[in-house]
Design a protein that fits this description.
- The protein contains nine helices and eight strands.
- It is globular and about 45 Å long.
- The chain is of the alpha/beta class.
Length: 256
Amino acid sequence: MIVTDTHCHLYWNSFDEDRSEVLARARAAGVQRMVVVGTEVETSHSAAELAESDPDIWCSAGIHPHDAEGADASARERIRELAARERCVAVGETGLDWFKEFSPREAQLDSFGWHLDLATELDKPIIVHCRDAHEATAELVSSHRLRRGVMHCYAYGPDELAPYLEAGYHVSFSGVVTYPRNEANREAARQVPLDRILVETDSPFLAPQGHRGKRNEPALVVPILERVAELRGMTPSELAEVTSANAARLFGLPEA
């Protein structure tokens, strides 16, 4: 079984003391492919270094909505350079976060639009963060010509899926789908077309049920995969094959 964790942050300092062991556990669990996602210049550079050091890791480059206000022209130019690299398979993490609003909404909207344009220019998919900002995110996604991306860590229900699916985006499910009170999210996992579904950890955050309160890591994408497979009436191996093929097609990865 070859599993792809399509969104993790392995450069995070909580992995500094045991990163090699984390990668070994991932591979032992069948997680053979990982996309390490940047959130600003420094972490995008760290993601690139990891991708360049390991053939099973790819990276992205982008500026998280939390950091949108502080990203000047120099930061954007550095992201552009990193995103153009061969091992960089996506632009982002970008998007909108109306929950914490660490950056003003206007700055977030401007940054998201810039990332959409960059992804179009580079012909790469975009990785979208959306928290408490569905309507504004859907409007930007729907109105832009880019038709290649992923709604990362999708936390909504089936009623919010339409604009993202109509725009050609994939939908990625995280540990959120395993939490007891998230039945709407589980229903969304049942309804996403099979050729658009992905799984991820968002590690070190959002560990799945049974591991909550602990550091998340790529090996724990397996219980997420198992839960989504159960919801869809599939075996984990069947869904692993589908989601890895979807990830390869979206990100331009070699065939597994």
